[in-house]
């Protein structure tokens, strides 16, 4: 039981570390300020505020976050904003995972990934796959999760995103440990720690430890 609790805590920390929201002009605002701005916002500004609200409240108010993401999806379709459409689908996938609706989340994320890949947006493809990998870990489908994080490791190398590499390596360590491959798991954690030290990222190093 203790090992299971430790695994869930680690998984939660990894989610917070790895699933970063898109850089948006509204990130510095709190929930109340965003809701006030939403009253008069229109077009892509309204969609971006809705997406930021999703990220602000997704853990404390997942049902509210789902409603915000659904509205963002509807407006993205109406305005023909493909990039924001993909973001809306990814946020719906993330919130569905938080609400315990894994299969629904997979559906949204598959759609988001298809759009991100069509847009050749590797960074956001990695983002969506990270959420998808989290769901497959929770479903104990470790082989599929490992495949996702191996692919994301390569994508992060292509992006020269060293923090992303640490995240992928740490996830692979978690997966191999759950599969009982302790020697392989140790190797991934070792590589994650070394990479974190190279880039002087003590947060990533602490997670990998």
Could you list some keywords that capture this structure?
209 residues, mainly alpha, 11 helices
Query: What share of the residues lie within helices?
Result: over 70%
Strand count, sense and closure of the main sheet? Answer: none
**Main structural class:** mainly alpha
Low-confidence stretches: 19-23
Shape: elongated
Structural summary, described in words:
Helix content is 80%, strand content 0%. It is built from eleven helices and no strands. Helix 7 (122-138) packs antiparallel against helix 8 (142-159) and helix 9 (162-178) runs parallel beside helix 11 (202-208). Mean pLDDT is 88; it is low at 19-23. It has 209 residues and is mainly alpha-helical.
Short description:
Helix content is 80%, strand content 0%.
Topology:
Elements: H1 2-18, H2 31-38, H3 43-57, H4 62-79, H5 82-98, H6 102-118, H7 122-138, H8 142-159, H9 162-178, H10 182-198, H11 202-208
